[in-house]
């Protein structure tokens, strides 16, 4: 997994098994954490779960699956394929606080606004809470879905946990009593792959899906406010038999002031930008579209509201866009770009490999089976085969079959006549 984030003045990127943090303002040495050299799980722990799809600790490959930055930017958490949960403190300098173990492989992380806990959503549909105050305490089960969870977030007041799964459901649950469901946000036609509560708009929720749309919700009531189709105007409508050809939303990012929304779709060489208006019927307004030389790997906003785009290319690996005079312009001469580029240069090969890797959403699409069409096709083939076999019979066989049919018909007529005679007497 390749992902980027902003943590204060640190630019963070995860690439394969490594987390790389680069200070954008000072010429400081980059912080690199490699999961292959991290603490190993003790063999005698009682938290092993044998029902984890048959996967064992040895089956993991140390690749980072998800990471999250706390609201203050002081904490970072990551989880990897060997089911580690690693907690870092990055202010005033980077320090690994603890390494704990999750039950199943995770798909998404989020810190609470109070930064007292980190919530971990996993592939089996469960959400566990891990304490930040007690960094070595085991996780506690908070809630569960009947489907794989793909995204999780929390409202800024820590009142609600919002989870999204493979079966198009977005659930809004009470944080203190997760069994108490506040609402469902229903309307997507494919898996929900991204969630975001925009800055300054705590009552709203943005969601992205494999159905090629981004939707705006009033999360507490579950009411849909707006839906944006992210397909290109010239794109032909996608048939239901080829849902994987729809643009899949893999990232929704919001600027710190809450005015701009950036939407990235997997394997599409553009980033779509929207303006967010509070007092308007059309709250999401398309602003511009950034056409990139390569498909982006991930995007994020920094504290200044600039948009950072990471691409798996040695020519243009990192690009920064600044909003000036009602448009987004590339800041090609930014010293931050040079500093981050040099820090990431040793990892180019891994980034390029990630750019050409298989889609991580491909297996999540529904598969529709038209049983009636298959049945009718087989029936037609069977009738044609019978007709061909009948035509291949010798003339004598056909005559004999015809005489047999006539004889059978005569016997049926004779039996019917006898029955009529008996009934008349």
Automatic annotation (TrEMBL):
<dbReference type="GO" id="GO:0106004">
    <property type="term" value="P:tRNA (guanine-N7)-methylation"/>
</dbReference>
<keyword id="KW-0539">Nucleus</keyword>
<dbReference type="InterPro" id="IPR028884">
    <property type="entry name" value="Trm82"/>
</dbReference>
<comment type="pathway">
    <text>tRNA modification; N(7)-methylguanine-tRNA biosynthesis.</text>
</comment>
<dbReference type="InterPro" id="IPR036322">
    <property type="entry name" value="WD40_repeat_dom_sf"/>
</dbReference>
<keyword id="KW-0677">Repeat</keyword>
<dbReference type="Pfam" id="PF00400">
    <property type="entry name" value="WD40"/>
</dbReference>
<feature type="compositionally biased region" description="Low complexity">
    <location>
        <begin position="396"/>
        <end position="407"/>
    </location>
</feature>
<keyword id="KW-0819">tRNA processing</keyword>
<dbReference type="InterPro" id="IPR015943">
    <property type="entry name" value="WD40/YVTN_repeat-like_dom_sf"/>
</dbReference>
<dbReference type="InterPro" id="IPR001680">
    <property type="entry name" value="WD40_rpt"/>
</dbReference>
<comment type="similarity">
    <text>Belongs to the WD repeat TRM82 family.</text>
</comment>
<dbReference type="GO" id="GO:0005634">
    <property type="term" value="C:nucleus"/>
</dbReference>
<protein>
    <submittedName>
        <fullName>WD repeat domain 4</fullName>
    </submittedName>
</protein>
<comment type="function">
    <text>Required for the formation of N(7)-methylguanine at position 46 (m7G46) in tRNA. In the complex, it is required to stabilize and induce conformational changes of the catalytic subunit.</text>
</comment>
<keyword id="KW-0853">WD repeat</keyword>
<dbReference type="GO" id="GO:0043527">
    <property type="term" value="C:tRNA methyltransferase complex"/>
</dbReference>
<feature type="repeat" description="WD">
    <location>
        <begin position="185"/>
        <end position="227"/>
    </location>
</feature>
<dbReference type="GO" id="GO:0005829">
    <property type="term" value="C:cytosol"/>
</dbReference>
<feature type="region of interest" description="Disordered">
    <location>
        <begin position="377"/>
        <end position="425"/>
    </location>
</feature>
